[in-house]
Amino acid sequence: MASLLPANPALASGPEAPFPTANRSPLLLPVGLPDASSAVVLPAGAFELRSTLEIANTSLYELSPCGDGCSLALDGETTRLALGARRGFGNGWEASITLPLLRHSGGFLDSAIEGWHDVFGLPNGDRDSYPQDRLRYRYRPDSDGVAITDTVTGIGDAQLGIARRLGARFALRGQLELPSGDPDDLTGSGGTDLALSLHFSSNGNGANANAGQPLYAHLSGGVLLREDGDLLPAEQENWVGFGSATVGWRASEHWHLKVQLDAHSAAWDSPQEALGEPSAQLVVGASAQLGEAWVIDLAFSEDIVVERSPDIVFQLGLRWRPPVR
Predict the structure, then answer these.
(1) Which H/E stretch holds residue 273?
(2) Whose CA is closest to 79, among 151, 182, 176, 18?
(3) Is the per-residue pLDDT at 170 higher than 90?
(4) Domain boundaries in the chain?
(5) Residue 271: predicted pLDDT
(6) Which among 266, 275, 191, 270 is positioned nearest to 234, based on CA atoms?
(7) Rounded to an integer, what distance in angstroms lies between the CA atom of residue 33 and that of residue 197?
């Protein structure tokens, strides 16, 4: 059994990390909100490769008090495959890069989600009033809006990150999101966004931080500064506050069960509640250490503040972090 544990105990925090996710609503996805992250910074010479697949299903139709023809429809599925890498450079520094690949489509999960709701007596909202597996991302404010009814696939906005360890349990992280996506396809914002955040992890950096404790936690908070972009420029909020809290439990030698809460302030100055009000989502799942170098993440998220984020998001992640010899 011991052979399945990481050879380097300083890297044993892999399964403890928060789930790398944020609000995946079609009109929030292009905004440069950073994924939830821990305060653990890789040591010098260590590196990690990561792929995260998320499928977000949304069904939302909302009229607005802004007048005739002003409405919001977010009905469809967005698939996001994020490919990333990070490396430790010593003296408490770390750098990272993430490139997302996005696909907006009608999807295939509507029937399963409605069946799940029926089995457990949960409300379907307006789902029964509209065709299944249809793509309709449409927002018509007073100014120019967006409309997508045909499947689109493209590269999203690239994210460059840097981190600095602050003591044993804190870190400062920064992220620069570059406009490599297409605002017309809702794969990018058309602007450059900068995020700064402070992170706390009870398990900390290093081999002996909180060693042997079955429960651990991560807390983070920060601010996103947005450049005027091409996506809904008249309604853009220039700064967005965000935060995350994760509680984890080492259920066994290899499996970790985690509950996570992600939240942010409004990203758009919009009369639509789904866009112009704060959002929060609950993420539940598990992570497992597979051999010396592999970690798998399995999770799903729900919109606990209803209609401010996708109805449900499924996440499958795989990380490879070879031990430092």
Answers:
(1) helix 273-276
(2) 151
(3) yes
(4) 2-320
(5) 85
(6) 270
(7) 11
Answer positive or negative: Cα dihedral of 89, 92, 97, 98. Answer: positive
Segments of 149-293 assigned E as strands: 152-155, 159-166, 170-177, 193-201, 215-226, 239-250, 255-264, 279-290
Amino acid at 280: A
DSSP 95-139: EEEEEEEEEEE--S-HHHHHHHHHHTT---TTGGGS-TT--EEEE
Query: Nearest-CA neighbor of 145 among 27, 264, 23, 65?
Result: 27
Task: Give the per-residue pLDDT at 127.
Answer: 65
pLDDT band for position 272 (50/70/90)?
confident
SS3 category, 250: strand
The overall average pLDDT reported for the chain is: 88
Whether 29 shows a pLDDT value over 90: the answer reads: yes
Find tokens 């209609």 and name the residue: 307
Tell me the two tokens of residue 299: 């999770």
> How confident is the model over 118-145, as a mean pLDDT?
72
Q: Residue 200's pLDDT is what?
A: 97
pLDDT at 109 over 90: no
The arithmetic mean of pLDDT across residues 89-106, rounded, is 96
On whether the CB atoms of residues 135 and 104 are closer than 8 A, the answer is yes
CATH architecture of 2-320: Beta Barrel (2.40)
**Cα–Cα separations (whole angstroms), residue 232 to 59, 146, 243:** 21, 8, 24
Helix (H, G, I), strand (E, B) or coil at 276: helix
Which residue type, as a one-letter code, is found at position 295? V
3-state secondary structure of 226: strand
